[in-house]
Each structure stands twice: as C-alpha cells, then as structure tokens.
Write a structure and sequence with these properties.
The chain is an alpha+beta fold. About 50% of the residues lie in helices and about 15% in strands. The relative contact order is 0.12.
C-alpha cells in the first residue's frame, strides 16, 4: 500500500488490519464464499479490534477516529475478502451511523454501545422492488395508530439484515404527503417485531459470504418513538449518509483493485510460459502497470473525499468521483487479473475469480455509476 499521505497512527492501523486480513480473514474466505456463510467469529474479532467503532467518538464507545480511518480498515480487508469488507462498511455506514447522526439520546444510548463494538449489527432498508436509484419512489408506508407506527411494504437487497446479531433495520417509509409530495421518514424496526419478516438469503453472483435478504412488513407495529430523526426528513438524511457511504465503498473498491494487482504481480512472476516467466512479457508488464495506476488514482480519490468529509467541508461531488473511479478500477483490475491467470482465473479457489464476481456490484450498490455521473454533472451546473 502507498502510505505517503498517512500519519504514523494511520499507517499502524493499516498494518494492523492488513495483518488481520492475511492471518484471519483470508484463510476462511474461499470456504465462506463457497458455502455462502458469514463467519460470525470473524465479525466478533473485528469488533474486538475496534473496527466498527473507528469513526465514532469515544463518548459513545467508539475509537475516536474518522472516516479516513474507517476507509483504511475497509480497504485492507477488501484486498482479501470483499464480503467481510462490506459487512464492516454496511455495519458502520448504514447500521450505526444513521443512529449516531439522527438518533435521539435515548436511541443512541440504547443501540450505539453494541453497534460500535460489533456486538450487534443493523441494516438500512431503502431499496424496494420499484425503488432503486429512484429512492423517492418508495412505496413502503407507515401510519400512526395511537402511539405506534404500523408499517406495510417490502425492501430488497438489505445487507446485515438477517445475521444472528442483527438488532434492527432502519427503513424508509411514506408517512404522509406534504404539498402533494410524499413525506418519507425513517423508522427503526427491531428484529423479531411481529409482522416483520426477513426472507431467505439471496443466491448472489458475488459477495456470497455477506448477509443480504429481502424484507417484508405486514402490519408491523413499533412505538412512535422509533422514528429516527425528523419526520419527513428521512430521504434527505439518508442521502447524507449515502454520500459518506460512497467514500467507504470507494475504499473497498480500491482494496479489491489492489488485491487483484498483488495477485497478478505474484502469479506473473511464478508462471512459466514457453520457457519464460509471464512477467517478462512486455504486454503483461504494461497490463500490470495500468493496474497499478488505477489503484493509485482510486486511493488518491477516496483519500481526498474522506479528508474533505473529516474537515467538515462539502464532499458530495468528490465522494461520487471517488466511487466512480474506484469501482471502475476494481472491475478493470479484476478483469485483467483474471486474464493473466488464464484458466486458473476461472476457478473460484483463486482470489481473482472471487474478485471478478464480487467487483460488479461496486458499480451498482450505494448508487450506480450512472447516479455518480449525475451527481458530478449537477455539481458542474449541468442540471438544466
């Protein structure tokens, strides 16, 4: 990893998580992927290392770090296993962060201690069968009945929603109309709530060891105080959370791109073709050089966005640029690494094969590449 812009503490964090990834995460990655199983032991060890609490202040049980620190950890994990990396990313960005940002004192006291230590996970239910990039098309509803919200609807592709330690999901729901437009709010729905059903896990192309489920709500009742943040501000609040999440996804994608690069370098040096090392061929050298350039650019991009965010400066466009740049780097590097590996690159036991399957979702999840381009274009004043 290129650490020229990191301080000593950040370098030590990168070293620590990289060592953990090599010694604990990598050895179980193939079997976890093959069996579609998220290792709760690995999750527990990440909690013990303090990874889930990295960007949170110490007064809520966190590590007192920032988003750059979180990205450093996610990147190091994604080098060897994107499923574990997304478990951390979603656990922080989509699980704990909304409660920290918008929760009441009672909600923060109830949920944050376990979320920031990895003793519990939470999901965020935004995407629906008819509402993906167009989150404003949300159809799930929540109506007040006395002192309870009654929730009806469905969500899909929700990460960390069905693990043994999932405490709740936060869902967006239409809670009324204002000036002819949908009023969308966010509501905490604890696991086990009657009427709240977590569907069977998806059979996914990639991220096979991460926990992802569809959710249904059929008259699910929760207390009125489970409203997260201001009523009618749910979508706006989530868009802010999503900006931060895009930085974390960019860090994940950078780690994936780097993992492919490292695997390609090592394999090309060991592989003998027509009596010569594959790495001696100029075409392979040029391919790997481009892979290195992509990693370098992706890392600079997400570091820049993270530092803006941590300094309290606007970062929406930079987060979109980082996610676009890094996700494309991950996809391109996964393709090139697989080609360098040849037939072996088509075998799931090799990490590049898993990266090849995993990387595609990076151009889709937490905002498609097209959405990132739209965000960047609007920042340039190209909205008409």
């Amino acid at each position: 990893m290129d650490h020229h812009d990191l301080d000593d503490d950040e370098r030590e964090l990168a070293r620590l998580v990289r060592e953990f990834a090599e010694e604990v995460v990598a050895p179980q990655a193939y079997e976890a992927d093959r069996t579609h199983t998220l290792s709760m032991d690995v999750v527990a060890q990440m909690g013990e290392l303090g990874l889930f609490g990295l960007p949170f202040p110490e007064d809520v049980g966190g590590q007192g770090g920032d988003y750059l620190a979180l990205g450093i950890a996610i990147e190091a994990l994604a080098r060897v296993d994107q499923s574990i990396a997304i478990t951390l990313e979603a656990g922080v960005s989509l699980g704990a962060m909304p409660v920290y940002r918008f929760g009441s004192e009672a909600q923060r006291a109830q949920y944050l201690p376990d979320l920031v230590t990895g003793r519990a996970l939470a999901g965020f239910g935004l995407t629906e069968p008819e509402a993906g990039s167009d989150a404003g098309a949300t159809r799930t509803t929540a109506r007040l009945d006395g002192d309870e919200w009654v929730i009806d609807g469905a969500k899909q592709f929700i990460t960390n929603s069905g693990t043994p330690i999932t405490r709740f999901v936060t869902v967006t729901a239409v809670t009324g109309r204002r000036e002819g437009r949908k009023e969308i709010s966010t509501i905490i729905v604890p696991s086990g709530t009657p009427g709240f059903t977590v569907g069977p896990a998806y059979d996914k192309v990639g991220w096979c060891a991460s926990d992802t489920h569809p959710l249904t709500f059929d008259g699910a009742r929760v207390p009125a105080e489970n409203l997260l943040g201001e009523r009618g501000r749910g979508l706006a609040s989530f868009l802010h959370i999503l900006d931060e999440g895009r930085i974390a996804i960019a860090a994940l994608a950078t780690g994936a791109a780097e993992g492919c690069l490292e695997q390609a370098v090592d394999y090309s040096r060991r592989r003998i073709v027509f009596g010569e090392r594959l790495s001696s061929r100029q075409s392979i050298q040029f391919t790997i050089a481009r892979m290195q350039a992509r990693v370098h650019n992706a890392r600079l991009s997400w570091h820049h966005a993270a530092r803006l965010r941590d300094a309290g400066k606007p970062f929406t466009s930079e987060a979109a640029i980082a996610k676009l740049t890094a996700s494309e780097a991950a996809m391109d590097n996964a393709r090139d690494a697989t080609q360098i590996f040849g037939g072996n690159g088509f075998m799931n036991e090799f990490p590049v094969a898993r990266h090849y399957r995993d990387a595609k979702i990076l151009e889709i999840g937490e905002g498609t590449s097209e959405v990132q381009l739209l965000v960047i274009a609007r920042a340039l004043g190209l909205d008409g």
